[in-house]
Amino acid sequence: YADIGRLIYETNFGKLPKSDTFKEDLELIDKFTTSPLIKKNIFDYEKENCFCYDINSSYLTAIMEMEHDYPVFTYFDKNFRIFDESSPILPLGEYIIDNVIVDKYNGFTLPSRILSYEVIKSLIQLGLIERKNIILYRIAKEFLSKDNLKQFVKSVQELFPDKKDYKQIVNHFIGTIGKRYATITKAFVTNDMSTVFAAFNQYSVNSEWKLSISKVDDLSFVKLKSKRRVLSDTSPIYRQILSRGILQLINLIEDRYAFGQSLLIGYKTDCIYIRHPSDEPLDLVKYKIEKWDNRFDPKKTMFYKAEERGHIHILMNSERHAI
To answer: pTM for the complete prediction?
Structure first.
């Protein structure tokens, strides 16, 4: 699917523009990785009047409703710097926020991460964060038009009218946009053990190559794999799409959460789990009701939680909280 998406994009629009990154910024970008929000707020609750609401085609919608152009950074732009009282909040900007717990939704959490201008502006307007929660920022001078990816989605839809097909193609293509590492794999087969030992001695210690050896009868299969961080990539475009997805999730919570009535049990990527939701009619164009996911069953002994780096960690029973 990703290859089909890339072929369609490059045939119609050429290569996606890459951003250049200062070496000193790579550690920040990798530390504050933008990833979907996944968390369980409440562990002990009654299942009566519980609902799961899902955003229709979240990332497709994020692209089609994108209000601002995508940043493309060059070495002529300033790198990440401290955000203070005089710092601007402008389009084509990336902003790193500190970890924020929002009491408004009984413990909704925004882990430290890079977010786009549109999300930062909306979060401040909604009162979910303040300027003091922004710690670093950078602003690009070059950009990719927001209409570029909208036209790409339309091109895919014309070629693959079935929603299941075009959704898969677009989603897989978006995944490749966020690639920040280049991987090289080499391999050879030999029945000469001296060659295997030579490879082991050369690559097993203090090497950027990861070595693995498999043996079948008298044949040895030796594989070398190297992974390195690239300085030029399209990840700012990817981060803006994910940021828009985060904003859509927050808007869904705003829509279904009734103060003094609702209980936000959890959320993951593009859906929320809520008890006693708002009595207002559901917008069936934007949202749909999904089957309750067993992952949020209070009888389970563990659940998944996304940390600021986007990795999945397991939280055990001993860390449960009751309400």
So the answer is: 0.81
DSSP 251-314: HHHHHH--TTT-EEEEEETTEEEEES--SSPP-TTTEEEEPPPGGG-TTSSEEEEE-TTS-EEE
Contact 73, 235 (CB under 8 A): no
pLDDT on residue 299? 44
The token duo for 37 is: 């929000």
- 191: which residues sit within 8 A by CB, 6+ positions away? 218, 219, 220
Residues 310-321 have pLDDT tens digits of 333 333 232 333
Coil, strand, or helix at residue 233?
strand
The pairing of beta strand 219-229 with beta strand 209-216 = antiparallel
Backbone φ, ψ for residue 157 (5° rounding): -65, -35
Residue 61 burial (CB < 10 Å; 0-12/13-18/19+)? middle
Alpha helices in 101-215 (DSSP H): 117-125, 146-159, 163-177, 193-203
> Which pair of tokens denotes residue 74?
């060059």
pLDDT value for 15? 93
Each residue's pLDDT tens digit, 15-58? 999 999 888 899 899 999 999 988 887 767 777 888 899 999 89
The distance of Cα 95 from the centroid of its chain, to the nearest Å, equals 15
